[in-house]
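A quick aside before the break. I want you to see a complete sequence-to-structure record at least once, exactly as it would be stored in a machine-readable document. Don't worry about memorizing anything.
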Amino acid sequence: MTGNLVARLVPMLAVQREERFNVFDVMRHGAHEKQLSNVFAWLLDDRASHKLGTRFQDIFVDAVNASLAEDDKIAHGVFSVRQERNTSADGQPMDIADLVLENASTAIVIENYFTSDGHGHSYEGYRGFGARGGRRSIVVMLCELEDRGALTGGWQEAAVVTYASLLTKLSVEIRSDPAYQRAYPEQCTFIDHMEQRFAKGQHVNDEHAIELIEVLCASGEAGRYGHRPIGDAAIAFGDQLAEEARHQFSESRDLLARMKARLRSYCRTTLVPQLNAELEVEAFSKVVSNWQGIYEWTLNLHGADDRTVRITFGPSAWNANEVESKFATRVPPNTADYTRVFVALVPNEIRQTTVSLQDVLHGLDPQDTRLSDEIVGLLRT
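That is the input. The structure line, written in tokens, reads:
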């Protein structure tokens, strides 16, 4: 381990991770959509033991209304709450909506998933189910992470509501009501834990994790990400920089996995169609991402004419640009920025794009053509 790496990491390690008890962390609750659907059903039920009445319902309706036109907004009222309702027509395979809110005039049919992805559920089926009895039907995607590029198959028409938007407003509401806090301290503690877990984010924030990835790449230490077994690599790193450094290394690796999943989704739903439209042929048809070791953070776009475009980031981009000798043209190491996504055409060139890891993490807009433009330029050079 180089002294330069240690020097660059010391300021980062000065930001100590706050150890705070959280019931969701202890019980590992929220790892599955059914668990969180139970909690949100409890909050949305105006007669439940939270003693909030319809206050959370109102917050939820306001969040849905933010996606609707002024003339289409839902009126506040009392909604019944049901879980796991089959939205399919008679004789069709079951398609289960996680939550359904209903009153005499309106039905809100909710799919709860960690990211804004319909993941095989029928948007039209959900909407048709809500319209039973002549009700107005609103379909909602309730999620932890909003990724507009993952909304396909009609789900782009759904209102998207995030956990953070709801829980932040609920916490503000409770903190402004001292009488409720005095009367229901246990409920306040539970809701505070929920906000801490799902609204205020991870112990080490994403920006800090990206900074760690960049430091390891820039210091020549990014090869650690390719070591196996993964746990031993993290322990070896942490033994030299103490417990906090080991923890941050694991956090940054988790972040890489999340970014790869988002980039893979974007490639399949948006980038490949963009490229094929721009090139006016079915130039690309397959996205391969099953790499291991130091190549793990790489996706290959395979074309009909045996051309392969590589999309790579983080440690894999560092390895391709500075360690491998496959490319005739590379990005000079002193100007390479490993907080960016790289694209390459083997064996011609690897180049750095303007798309940042933060852009990927926040979700690339379907109208964003930066990666498509770089790849088309690479192919035509």
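Two observations worth writing down. Residues 100 and 283 are 43 Å apart (CA to CA). The chain is about 45% helix and 20% strand. We'll return to this after the break.
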